[in-house]
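Running this now, will post back.
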Amino acid sequence: MEILGVDIGGSGIKGAVVDTKTGELKTERLRLKTPQPATPEAVAETLKELVEQIGWKGPVACGFPARVIHGVVYTAANIDKSWINTKVEELFSKTLGSEVYVANDADVAGLAEMHFGAGRDYQQGTQVLFLTIGTGIGSALFLNGKLYANTELGHLKFHGDSAERYCSDSARERYELKWKEFGERFNEYLTYVEFLLQPDVIILGGGASKKFDKYSECFTVKTKVIPAETLNMAGIIGAAMYGELRMKEAQKAKKK
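Update: finished.
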């Protein structure tokens, strides 16, 4: 199945048509700047522009930087506060004139990583925690290869604030931390998460995962920690995969 996968971020909105069976991009990746302020209406119009430039007429699925439950946005840690309680799927579908599916960006990136990346060897009988290290910390939890959505473990209370304010990639830049210093901070967070969940494997994605070798020696957790493989394409590929899952669910519901 081919679906237009879109990765909506704070600075850019990126998309491409994806073959969900292979994870292959069937068109060039297109990137448009995220409008500022990134209000719901402005983002919807930019999404429409991206779809039109790609020339796509089929289903669209998006990864979005918030907790999205039943098509409604419930958090806004790294996006405009006007998004809270916005019916994002309804807004995007109305603006585009076609069905649009939306899920948390870390969740969809995790779907891509579990099927086409480092997680493909950890399916049945394992619990996998996928963490993205970027502007914030995103999380996706998988048990027996199935997603438990909207965990948002970057928002755990940590050192008097949220974890992502302490050890995300943007925190590393803000505090001008050397990679070893960042690694020691992130190890504290991993130790806490390990205590809470006891996962079998932790996969690190996002921007900072490219520098995995510069800080991974600081990790003292017993859980196996490995870098992601899908990297920049994970959000786009995973969004398309999420769209396919939703379409199959809708088809099953119709048959009933």
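The chain has a mean pLDDT of 96. More later if anyone needs it.
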